[in-house]
Task: structure prediction
Amino acid sequence: MLGMQMVSVAIGWQLYERTGDPWMLGLVGLVEVIPVVLFILPAGHVADRVPRRDVTIWAGVVALVASAGLAAATWWVTPLWVTYACLGLIGTARAFGQPAAASYVPELMAPEQRAGLNAWIAASYETAAIAGPALAGLLIAAAGAALPLAVAAAGQLVFIVVLLTLPKRMPVAAGGTVHHPRELLAGVRFIRQSPVFLAAITLDLLAVLLAGAVALLPIYAKDILHVGPAGLGWLRTAPSVGALAMSLIATRLRPWVRPGRVLLWVVAGFGAATVGFGLSTNLWLSLACLGLVGIFDMVSVIIRITLEQNITPEALRGRVSAINFLFVGFSNELGAFESGAVAALAGPVVTVVGGGAAAILVVLGVARVWPELARIGPLHTLRPPGEAR
Result:
C-alpha cells in the first residue's frame, strides 16, 4: 500500500509536469479501473480454485514489473503509452490480487481473532495513506519521480518475499468439478441471499457515494476556509489520522455485543460529521469533523470486513470478495464524481451538507428494510449458513 501511494503521487507529478494536461491525470484512474471491471469476476473464481497465496504472489510480481516499468519509463522519458500500459498492469494486478489476498487472510486465523487483525491491517493502510504521499514528495524533490517508483518496486519485492514464508493452502472449491460459467456469479447470488451482509455493503456504498467530501476539499481550502495549499494538506490528512487512531484503539476493544447496531450508529455519525464539516468556516472545527469522519468510517470498515470473513463459506470467499471490491472499492471514485457534479450545480456547501444528511437517511432506510442487521450477535460467533458454531 505504501508503494501504491507513492506510485499515485509520482505518476501524477510526472505526467502533469511532462504534459501540463489535466486530462492525462484523469486517464490514470480510467486505465487502472478498466482491468478491474473486466477481470474482477474471473479473478474471484481463480481465488476460489487456485491457492490464494500463490495468486497474491503472482499479482505482486505483476505489480513489481509494472512499478519497475514506470520507473524506467520516467527515467528514460519513453512514449506515454508505455506509462499507461504499466498502469493497466497495476490495475490487472489489483483485480486478481485483492480478492485473493482478502480471502487468504481468514485462512490464517480463528474467527475470534479476525476483528483484531483487521484493525491492525486497517492501521497499516492508514499509516501508508499518511506516510506514502509525504515520502513520495520528498523523494521527488530529492531525485525526481523515478526514485519513488523504484522504491515502490522494491516494496513489492519485500511483499512477495514475506508471502513466500506463509503457508500455502488449497481452497475448498478447488476440489470440486463444476466449472460452469454460472459459477462466476456465485458470489453475487450469495450476497443477494445474505440480508445482513447486503445491508452492510449497502450502508458503506451509499454513505461514501452520497457523503464523500474529499473531492471538494480544494474548494473548501481556497474559497471557504481560506487556508491555501498547506491547509489543504492538513484537510486531506485529517480523516486518515482519525482512522489510524481508531484502528489502533480497535485492536484493544472487546468484541461488540451488537455490531450491527454499532454499524448503523457509526454510519449515522459519518453523515453527521460530514454535515458539520460542510457547515464549518473554522479550520480547527473542520479538521475535527474530518477526523470524526475517519473514526466512524474505520469502525464501519472493520465490522464489514469481519462480517464478510465470518459468514462467507470457504468455497466462495474469492468470488464474494471480488464482488465486494467491485462495488465498495469504487464508491470513493463514484462519490468524487457525484460530489463534483452536484457541486457544479448547487455549490459545495449544499453538496456536502446534503450528502451527509442523505447518509443519515440511508441508515434509517437500511434499518427499516433489513432489521436483522441490528440483531446480529458478536462477530466472532457468526458462521456461514449451515455451519455449526
Remarks:
- The chain is about 75% helix and 0% strand.
- The two ends are 34 Å apart (CA to CA).
